[in-house]
Amino acid sequence: MFTGLVTDVGTIRRAEHRNGLTRFEVESGFPLSGIAMGASILHAGVCLTVIDKGEASRGAWFAVEAVPETLSKTVLGSWKEGSRVNLEQSLKLGDELGGHFVFGHVDGVGEIVSVEPEGQSFRVTVRPPAAIARYFATKGSAAIDGVSLTVAAALPNGDFQVAIIPHTWDVTTLGALKPGDKVNLEIDMLARYVARMIGADAPEGKQAP
Predict the structure, then answer these.
(1) Distance between CA 129 and CA 116 in Å, rounded?
(2) For residue 195, what pLDDT is reported?
(3) Topology of domain 8-89, per CATH?
(4) What separation, in Å, do the N-terminal and C-terminal C-alpha atoms of the chain show?
């Protein structure tokens, strides 16, 4: 489990396809001693497991693997050497929950519609897949590439907007966003369960009792 508060931006130093899997080596500022084998780390909103690690110039490198399903349903399939990635290590008992509960299970890939300066901050409009558009509510939470954000506006056409403060803009990959970019989206877990309880996501022809 995670909070959506990015603690480092890593760099893909190698992407290798083998045995039906894709192995990514990620260089980060995390100290080697703080990365455990088998640990879960959030990569742009996707929870992946550490399978190897070592020292690097900036701190440590570690390796993770992704299956074809993950590559096809997230932005990970576009990663290559040099790609920058938001990172967060898993939440530990007693840690401050400053964002919202993020599970690392991407619900869909959205598209950036516009990026507009708004004073010193930025207002970003995102187009989610139609199947999950109803889950984004004004003042609700959303994770974009692993970053916990508050929905500033849910628009009638299904798009939603977030307002990003300068700090978040500078210390995550969000500062490089431009129209047409694809981003991993995770809806708020509360919205998911409310929809299930009221039958909003029940199979066609069925409603919750």
Answers:
(1) 22
(2) 67
(3) Elongation Factor Tu (Ef-tu); domain 3 (2.40.30)
(4) 31
CATH fold group of domain 108-198: Elongation Factor Tu (Ef-tu); domain 3 (2.40.30)
The C-alpha atoms of residue 15 and residue 141 are separated, in whole angstroms, by 32
CA 9, 13, 15, 16 torsion-angle sign:
negative
DSSP state of 166: H
Structure tokens at 69: 């399903």
Residue 144, phi then psi, degrees to nearest 5: -115, 115
Q: How confident is the model at residue 94 (pLDDT cuts 50, 70, 90)?
A: low
Reported pTM: 0.90
Q: What is the CA radius of gyration of the chain?
A: 17
Determine the Cα angle at 25 with ends 171 and 83, to 5°.
45
